[in-house]
């Protein structure tokens, strides 16, 4: 039996009595931000006098950065700058979720605020009409850190029957998946779909297509919704790229990339050009494809379990053991998109999309001017 949190065992009928109370025209706004780990999410809520109709109506706020690994106690106030607004699927309309950038006391971006620089790059490559889609894999755990529904002593049957599975003997934790899906749709997340993954208790959802900076915004809030849904069920969703050692799949966040030229007739040549550019900067991309400079992906990108080797760049049609996969249909149609399979499940989507945009769509002179602008 999986270990669930004590909070999930509280009487939800009592809670609902209060959730049904009228708000008197007021609006609850939950501010969400990435903390100093580059992986964790934090949130706090305030009351506005009326429902905001645009992000410009959400006021800046602040928080104690010394408690989020983002500042020292002697100078702890950090700024929350609202950047994107969603409907709140937990407290319902008119309440809102608001994703924020974090600025330091001097109003410079915090170290883990990769959105700030990513947005500048996306503006520079706007003419390419970049579309992204990211495939977020995650693993459900009990509060004891053991995979949800795995035997307490021993292991489930080997991988094989679990991918896209159905049935209580194969699919573990579907309630979390379905509730998260509905929460994303309600909130306005560009969620594309979901499926059970190769390892038992491992699932995936896809977000996209999103243009430019929207990719990171929507994925971060989709992650927040996942953690909140799991909180209600008393379980944990881990984005660890290799939660179980041994003959079990890791967890990635594959990214699909497409430009206007790639989507047009004979766009395959532009896909191949982008792959060629990526092949020359493999090491740089590995360094930004997880929050620890590639150390997390060292455990995952072994060349086994549908991964490429972290040490070598590779590409191929329909090859899930390559760094870059060209889908078979894309190869047939000679246009479409490519899939970079290297990003880890716990990657920062802003860092990933920015690196791809820089490598594939900024020429050297544009990139140098961008570096000078950020200096």
From TrEMBL:
Intracellular or extracellular location(s): Cytoplasm
EC nos: 6.3.1.2
Main location: cytoplasm
Any Pfam family hit: Gln-synt_C
Matches recorded under SUPFAM superfamilies: Glutamine synthetase, N-terminal domain, Glutamine synthetase/guanido kinase
Record keywords, A-Z: ATP-binding, Cytoplasm, Ligase, Nucleotide-binding
Annotated catalysed reactions: L-glutamate + NH4(+) + ATP = L-glutamine + ADP + phosphate + H(+)
InterPro entries: Gln_synt_N (IPR008147), Gln_synt_N_sf (IPR036651), Gln_synth/guanido_kin_cat_dom (IPR014746), Gln_synth_cat_dom (IPR008146), Gln_synth_gly_rich_site (IPR027303), Gln_synth_N_conserv_site (IPR027302), Glutamine_Synthetase (IPR050292)
Example GO biological process: glutamine biosynthetic process
Record domain GS catalytic: where: 114-375
Entry-linked SMART domains: Gln-synt_C
Gene3D superfamilies linked to this entry: Glutamine synthetase, N-terminal domain (3.10.20.70), Glutamine synthetase/guanido kinase, catalytic domain (3.30.590.10)
Gene Ontology cellular-component annotations: cytoplasm
Name of the protein in its database record: Glutamine synthetase
PANTHER family, per database record: GLUTAMINE SYNTHETASE
GS beta-grasp domain sequence ranges: 27-107
Broad EC category: ligase
Organism: Gambusia affinis
Sample GO molecular function, one term: glutamine synthetase activity
Family: Belongs to the glutamine synthetase family.
Transmembrane segments: none
């Amino acid at each position: 039996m999986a270990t669930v949190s004590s909070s999930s065992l509280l009487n939800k009928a009592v809670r609902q009595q209060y959730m049904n109370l009228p708000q008197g025209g007021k609006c609850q706004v939950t501010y969400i931000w990435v903390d100093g780990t580059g992986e964790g999410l934090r949130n706090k809520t305030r009351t506005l006098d009326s429902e905001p109709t645009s992000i410009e109506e959400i006021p800046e706020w602040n928080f104690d950065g010394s408690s989020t690994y983002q500042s020292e106690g002697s100078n702890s106030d950090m700024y929350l700058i609202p950047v994107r607004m969603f409907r709140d699927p937990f407290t319902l309309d008119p309440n809102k979720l608001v994703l924020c950038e974090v600025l330091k006391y001097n109003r410079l971006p915090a170290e883990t605020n990769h959105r700030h620089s990513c947005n500048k790059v996306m503006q520079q490559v706007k003419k390419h009409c970049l579309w992204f889609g990211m495939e977020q894999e995650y693993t459900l755990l009990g509060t004891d850190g053991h995979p949800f529904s795995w035997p307490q002593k021993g292991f489930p049957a080997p991988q094989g029957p679990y991918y896209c599975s159905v049935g209580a003997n194969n699919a573990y934790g579907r309630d979390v998946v379905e509730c998260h899906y509905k929460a994303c749709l309600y909130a306005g997340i560009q969620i594309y779909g979901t499926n059970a993954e190769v390892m038992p208790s491992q699932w995936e959802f896809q977000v996209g297509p999103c243009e430019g900076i929207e990719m990171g915004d929507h994925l971060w809030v989709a992650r927040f919704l996942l953690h909140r849904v799991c909180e209600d069920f008393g379980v944990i969703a881990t984005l660890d790229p290799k939660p179980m050692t041994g003959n079990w799949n890791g967890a990635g966040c594959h990214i699909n990339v497409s430009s206007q030229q790639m989507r047009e007739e004979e766009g395959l040549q532009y896909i191949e050009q982008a792959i060629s550019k990526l092949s020359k900067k493999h090491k740089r991309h590995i360094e930004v494809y997880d929050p620890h400079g590639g150390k997390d992906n060292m455990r995952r990108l072994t060349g086994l379990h549908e991964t490429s080797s972290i040490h070598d760049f590779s590409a191929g049609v329909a090859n899930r053991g390559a760094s870059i996969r060209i889908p078979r249909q894309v190869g047939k149609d000679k246009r479409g998109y490519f899939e970079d399979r290297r990003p880890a499940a716990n990657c920062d989507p802003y860092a990933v999309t920015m690196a791809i945009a820089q490598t594939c769509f900024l020429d050297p002179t544009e990139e140098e001017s961008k570096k000078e602008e950020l200096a």
